Amino acid sequence: EVQLVESGGGLVQAGGSLRLSCAVSGFGIDDYAIGWFRKAPRKEREGVACISSTDGQTHYEDSVEGRFTISRDSAKNTVYLQMNGLKPEDTAVYYCAGVRARTTVHLTAVVIYCSDDEYQYWGQGTQVTVSS
Predict the structure, then answer these.
(1) Which pLDDT band, with edges at 50, 70 and 90, does 101 fall under?
(2) pLDDT, tens digit (0-9, with 9 covering 90-100), for 1-14
């Protein structure tokens, strides 16, 4: 059974940091691209950061570039999202998701576009709230 379990969310003041974890079971993250997505009230779900299964290629949404870092620990089968310099507009439920790419081209696409409709398996989400 595939499971993705997010943790590390919480309430933090603007300018603070959080590290989200996505613990994966049921598949190895070395075979799957993994992404972090977020859903804020009254907004569409958006891709925040995605990472390749092979060469470590990453993509970040413009508003988080330079503040957030996605990383993988294959030994722990876990993907992280380090979030620094948090802003109130980062408040959202954060989800991790995985997809097994069909081809090398597909793998590049799911990372670069970091689009939620390409990702197969999803966690339940963790709330991040940033106060001003």
Answers:
(1) confident
(2) 999 999 999 999 99
Evaluate whether 22 touches 78 at the Cβ level (below 8 Å): yes
Q: In the beta sheet, which residues pair with residue 60?
A: 49
**DSSP class of residue 104?**
H
104, pLDDT greater than 90: no
Please name the residues in contact with 65: beta carbons below 8 A apart, sequence gap of 6 or more.
none
Q: Which candidate, 131, 115, 132, places its Cα nearest to that of 37?
A: 115
How big, in percent rounded to 5, are the helix, strand and coil portions of the chain?
15, 45, 40
Q: How much is the mean pLDDT over the chain?
A: 95
Cα dihedral 109, 53, 128, 6 in deg (nearest 10): 130
